[in-house]
Specification:
The chain is of the alpha+beta class. Helices cover 36% and strands 13% of the residues. The chain has a two-stranded antiparallel sheet with strand order 1-2.
Length: 124
């Protein structure tokens, strides 16, 4: 088990721990796309994307051909999708991840594929 700070959730600064409605209100009032929002004392979503890019690069350099389990949170997961599919941060917001869901990404022949996304194990 390795702890990697690149996989931590988006630092929303003063908004961390507050209801999501506060974040959405701030986003609406800013008139900016989410990619351009910098929460007070937090980080831009583009910085989260940079962490995701760095993590993907690390996997390709150090663990190519291996199966890796990475655990994180929804915003970081969206930025991993943004990174592997090479789509912009705002487009990646269309992806949704339930709590405790899993997704499978595969790298073959210089290309990433999303095998499954937001899968929830069935209740037994």
């Amino acid at each position: 088990v390795e702890i990697d700070p690149r996989l931590r959730e988006w630092n929303c600064g003063d908004l961390d721990g507050l209801p999501a409605s506060d974040f959405h209100r701030m986003l609406k009032e800013s008139g900016k796309p989410v990619s351009q929002l910098t929460p007070p004392h937090g980080e831009k979503l583009e910085q989260v994307r940079q962490r995701a890019d760095s993590f993907i690069k690390y996997l390709l350099e150090e663990h190519l051909g291996e199966s890796i389990l990475a655990c994180s949170h929804g915003d970081l997961m969206r930025m991993l999708v943004s990174s592997v599919l090479q789509i912009n941060v705002d487009t990646a917001q269309a992806f949704y991840f339930d709590n405790a869901s899993y997704s499978v990404f595969e790298y073959n022949d210089q290309q990433w594929k999303i095998i499954t996304s937001n899968r929830i194990p069935p209740n037994n």
